[in-house]
Design goal:
This is S-arrestin. The protein has 2 domains: 156 residues, Immunoglobulin-like, CATH 2.60.40; 160 residues, Immunoglobulin-like (Sandwich), CATH 2.60.40.640. It contains 3 helices and 23 strands. The chain starts with a strand and ends with a strand. The C terminus is likely disordered.
Length: 365
């Protein structure tokens, strides 16, 4: 049997986007110069937008598009190792692995979305619509050569949003309406206690209605809606309710109502909803509704992929539908500092064995 082994060492697979900066992607690759037989070794960081079940072209339209791709030569090194080493983690790995270990380092550009996928339906098969990130190490004569799976290893990673500092903004929306055949207005106000909620946290909504009109207000409902913009060849928008409370509350003419409603925008309540945007996942682990996308204003026009936002909507009937909405953010809290855990990702190929596109290296702690 011919065995070709490539090993990539990274301290983590989740890279945090804190809105004002993004964690760099860094690691170390371990090679065997004897097996390489004079070939070069490269490491590639890529961001791909998949939006079909195939990776082929149909009538000239591709089912995937590379949003970002950068490749760097790792071996033979183009600079001294000390100049290529950027982090303390890399320094520790190089000391541990010896002279055949080489560092790599990438920075994300500002105009990339975070890892997001659309939830498939119960009967959907194949690749899902998603923004995916990948680190790939491979050997070859040149960086543009066709990559041979038997001399490469691929590792899925995630770029994940974490909430910026609390802006102290209290989201509020209000409106006064002159209803048909009514001399006095209907006034509606909706507010949230804060702008950012964490995944799993209930969303408290305060609704205040002052009905000075001659009409009765009824059929009051409050919902959290996920707005997903898919930006590639065109700009498609999808709006889906992820939490809703329909009430029997009424506000007769000449009366008022002030009431708090609590909504729970959770993936657990939407498991079979096809097309919901979710945070990207690694392998088959659980995930959550997609975090709100935050993009710097100066690069907004350059961004492609899947952009997600949330809003609370209150609807009611009073001679016609009355509608009010307030945007908010649904995100992860900043993680607490924790001890780093090294993971080793290897792939050993046997001649004649065919690996599928979704195969992933086994993980050894």
């Amino acid at each position: 049997f011919l065995v070709i082994q490539v090993a990539v060492y990274m301290a983590k697979r989740d890279f945090m986007d804190y809105c004002d900066f993004v964690d760099p992607v860094d690691g170390v690759i371990l090679i065997d110069p004897v097996q390489l037989k004079g070939k070069k070794v490269y490491v590639m960081l890529s961001c791909t937008f998949r939006y079909g079940h195939q990776d082929m072209d149909v009538m000239g339209v591709a089912f995937k598009r590379d949003l970002f791709m950068v490749t760097r030569q790792v071996y033979p090194e183009l600079q001294d190792k000390e100049k290529l080493t950027h982090t303390k983690i890399q320094q520790k790995l190089l000391r541990k692995l010896g002279e055949n270990a080489f560092p790599f380092f990438f920075e994300f550009p500002d105009n990339l979305p975070c890892s997001v996928c659309l939830q498939p339906g119960p009967l959907d098969v194949g690749k899902k619509c998603a923004v995916e990130f990948e680190v790939k190490a491979f050997s070859g004569e040149n960086r543009d050569d066709r990559i041979d799976k038997q001399s490469s290893v691929c590792l899925s990673i995630r770029k994940i949003h974490f909430t910026p500092e609390d802006s102290k903004v209290v989201p509020v929306a209000e409106t006064s309406l002159e209803l048909l055949m009514s001399e006095k207005p209907l006034h509606v106000k909706m507010s949230l206690p804060k702008e950012t909620f964490y995944h799993g946290e209930p969303v408290k909504v305060t609704v205040e209605i002052t009905n000075s009109s001659s009409r009765n207000v009824k059929d009051i409902s409050v919902s959290v809606e996920q707005v997903t913009n898919i930006i590639l060849y065109s700009n498609d928008k999808y709006i889906k309710s992820v939490a809703k409370e329909e009430t029997d509350d009424t506000v007769p003419s000449g009366t008022s109502l002030r009431k708090d409603y609590t909504l729970y925008p959770l993936l657990a309540h939407n498991k079979d909803r096809r097309g919901l945007a979710l945070d990207g996942r690694l392998k088959h682990e659980d995930t959550n509704l997609a975090s709100s996308t935050i993009v710097k204003q100066e690069v907004l026009r350059e961004v492609q992929g899947i952009l997600v936002s949330y809003k609370v909507v209150v609807r009611m009937m009073a001679s016609g539908e009355v509608y009010l909405e307030v945007p908010f953010r649904l995100m992860h809290p900043k993680p607490e500092a924790d001890d780093m855990v090294f993971e080793e990702f290897k792939r050993a190929y046997l001649k004649g064995v065919v690996y599928g596109d979704d195969d992933e290296s086994p993980t050894e702690a």
